[in-house]
Amino acid sequence: MAYLIEGIRVDGVLSALVAAAVLGIVNAVIRPVVLFITLPVTVLTLGLFTFVVNALMLMLAARLVTGFEVQGFLPALVGSLLLSVISALLTTTVGKGFRRRR
Residue 9: helix, strand or coil by DSSP? Predict the structure, then answer.
């Protein structure tokens, strides 16, 4: 993402790996709570508010990891959209591989 989106910066491979791990933990622990609290807004916006929550989780991970920086909400929102697309593509690709092995 740092190569594609201006406003997201990663200092090195180690920072990227730590940021990925922290983002995974934040998405596993904090994101479900935030999604539950913001459920009425999410329903009202037909699920689009989930992208805002994802952007906030990305910004939180950037605050926790030195060497990983997100400069503002708009780069975080674009980064969360890109992460969603990449995650969906990987899930589809890896999911097909697991189904063939059975």
Answer: strand
Structure tokens given for 31: 């994101």
Q: What is the 3-state secondary structure (H, E, C) of 33-82?
A: HHHHHCHHHHHHCCCCHHHHHHHHHHHHHHHHCCCEEECCHHHHHHHHHH
State the CB neighbour count (10 A cutoff) for residue 8. 22
Mind listing the pLDDT tens digit for each residue in 6-57? 999 999 999 999 999 999 999 999 999 999 999 999 999 999 999 999 999 9
Predicted TM-score (pTM) of the model is: 0.85
Which residues on adjacent β-strands are paired with residue 70? 8
Question: Which 8-state DSSP code applies to residue 5?
Answer: S
